[in-house]
Specification:
This protein has 278 residues and is α+β, with helices and mostly antiparallel strands. It is built from eleven helices and eight strands. The longest helix has 22 residues.
């Protein structure tokens, strides 16, 4: 099957299939949608929120809206994956009890499904049907594909409710050390956080921190800090009526001009785009 990318143009539903011989990850690393990452073959190292973990063939990763994430292992690039992004508004079509049906989605920033063979076969069958719909594009294909995605979510949520989610091990002590820095940045992003001061705080050299931060998370130090700040700014733009200049200061930017430039680089839009409905 050939690679494809579908987006409904409304930011509420997209499907991407890729059989890759090289490492690739989109610029935008957080979304207003739930992301379903199904690894069909290969092995990937995933950074999500504040952890790095290894994902294997047959695993499904479900990530909540506005959670920073990225795949990191450029040294093992060969893989095949299906990615679906779906907005919560699409789930309401199930019935009024959709929050009960999809309960695990709303309780965690992310979860990883490692299924027994029977569930793996069911997931593979649904995934193949989604891809077939997106490629053939018969009348009603988008709606049909959305119903299939909901079936996929139900299978995963049933598994999550019935089985304790096994915590995945961090790949190495180096990863755990860097992730301590990540957790600190996640809660202190509004402060001035130059690389050399964080290196001093965590008793490592700036060179070590810069080099291994990228290896552990997939982000450069500055790229990650900017992404965290922009993610929080986007939330404030959507949920409050604070002025853009105040939001820029609240999330750690000293210059509104610099904030606007970084915001567009990270999200693809100017800040006021997220005020369009107000």
């Amino acid at each position: 099957m050939e690679d494809f990318q579908f987006d409904n143009g409304e930011g509420s539903f997209s499907v991407s299939y890729r059989k890759a011989l090289s490492h690739n990850m989109p610029i935008n690393h957080f979304h207003s949608t739930y992301e379903i990452f199904y690894l069909m073959s290969g092995k990937r190292t995933f950074f999500i929120k504040d952890r790095t973990m290894i994902i294997e063939e047959g695993d499904v990763v479900i990530i909540s809206p506005n959670i920073l994430h990225r795949t990191t292992n450029t040294e093992m690039p060969k893989h095949e994956r299906l990615i679906v992004n779906i907005h919560e508004s699409q789930m309401t079509s199930v019935n009024d009890a959709y929050r009960d049906i999809f309960q695990p989605l709303f309780e965690q920033a992310y979860f990883i499904i490692k299924c027994p063979l029977q569930d793996k076969l069911a997931i593979e069958s649904v995934a193949q049907s989604i891809m077939q719909e997106m490629q053939e594009k018969k009348p009603g294909f988008e709606m049909f594909a959305q119903t299939l995605v909901l079936q996929l979510l139900i299978i995963c949520c049933r598994h999550a409710k019935q089985n304790a989610l096994v915590p995945l091990e961090t790949p190495s002590p180096m990863h755990e050390r860097i992730l301590e820095v990540v957790r600190y940045m996640n809660t202190h992003y509004m402060q001035d956080l130059p690389l050399h001061l964080l290196a001093e705080k965590f008793y490592v050299s700036p060179y070590y921190l810069s080099r291994f931060f990228k290896e552990a998370t997939g982000f450069t130090f500055v790229e990650y800090l900017n992404s965290v700040r922009i993610k929080e700014a986007k939330k404030l733009l959507e949920q409050t009526s604070l002025k853009v200049s105040l939001i820029a200061r609240k999330v750690g930017f000293g210059s509104v001009t610099h904030f606007g430039r970084v915001f567009k680089l990270v999200t693809g839009h100017a800040p006021l785009y997220y005020r369009k409905d107000k």
